[in-house]
Amino acid sequence: MKNKVLMGLAAVAMVAVLSSCGKKPQAEIDAANAAIEAAKTAEAPVYVAAEFAAVQDSLNAVMADITAQESKLFKKFGPAKAKLASIVTLANTVATNAATKKEEVKAETTTLLTDIKTVIEENGKLIPKLPRGKEGAAVIEQIKADVATVDAAVVEAQGLFDKGSYMDALNKIKAAKEKADGLNAEVKEVLTKARIKF
User: Fold this and answer.
1) What is the pLDDT of residue 111?
2) Which of 48-52, 107-111, 156-160, 193-197 has the lowest mean pLDDT?
3) Does 164 lie in the same domain as 120?
4) For residue 29, is it within any domain?
5) Do 90 and 114 have their domain in common?
6) pLDDT band at 198 (very low <50, low <70, confident <90, very high)
7) How far is CA 144 from CA 21, 124, 132, 194, in A?
8) Do 156 and 175 fall within a single domain?
9) Which residues of 189-198 are buried (b: 16+ CB within 10 A; e: fewer)?
C-alpha cells in the first residue's frame, strides 16, 4: 500500500516536472520578436540585409521547432528558450551594426555629393572649350544631354539624402559620379587631342 502511494506521488511529481518543461516560452518569443522589430526600426534590412535575414531565419527555425514540440506529449522547450535568448542578443547586435553602417553610408554619400559637384563644375568649364567642327556640334549636344542626366541624378540623390534614405542616395550618386567622371575623362581626351589647354 505504502509502495502504491509512493509510486502515485512519484508519478504526480514526474507529470508536474514534465508539464513545467512543456510550457510554451511565450515571454521569450515576445522578446525575440520585439528585438527583431527594433532591428527593423533601425533599418537593418536596408543597411545589413544579410545579417538581418540570418536573424529572421533563426527565429523562423526556432518557431518551427516550438510548433513541433507543441504536438508532442512530453514537450521540451528548454533548447528553444536558449535559442530565443541568443536571437535577442543577435538582433540587438544587428540593430547596432545597422546604425553604424547607416552612419558610414551617410558619410560616404556626403563625400560623394561634394566630389561630384567639383567634377560637374570642372565639366562646366571644359565643355565650352570643346572644338566645334563638322562632328563636334553633335558630340557637344550629346555631352550636354549626359550632363543634364547627371545633374538630375544629383538633385534626386540630394533629395533622397535629405529624406534620410542614405542607401538609395548612395546608389544614385555612385552611378552619377561614375558618369560624371567618364564625361570628364572624355572631354579632357578631346581637348588634349585638339591641343586645347584646360
Assistant:
1) 97
2) 193-197
3) yes
4) yes
5) no
6) confident
7) 73, 9, 14, 19
8) yes
9) ebbeeeeeee
Task: Give the structural domain span for 53.
Answer: 23-100
Q: Please check whether residue 12 lies inside any domain of the structure.
A: no
Cell numbers standing for residue 34:
520585439
Q: Which three cell numbers stand for residue 77?
A: 522547450
Closest CA to 179 of 159, 140, 139, 150: 150
Nearest to 29 by CA among 1, 72, 71, 58: 58
Residue 17 lies in a domain: no
Q: What is the DSSP-derived secondary structure letter of residue 42?
A: T
Domain end position, chosen among 66, 100, 134: 100
Last-in-domain residue among 56, 82, 100: 100
Q: What is the dihedral of CA 45, 46, 48, 53, to 10 degrees?
A: 20
Report whether 109 contacts 161 (CB < 8 A). yes
Cell 511565450, located at residue = 26
CA distance 26 to 102: 32
Number of domains within the chain: 2
Mean model confidence pLDDT for the chain: 88
The tally of CA atoms less than 13 A away on the side-chain side of residue 27 is 2
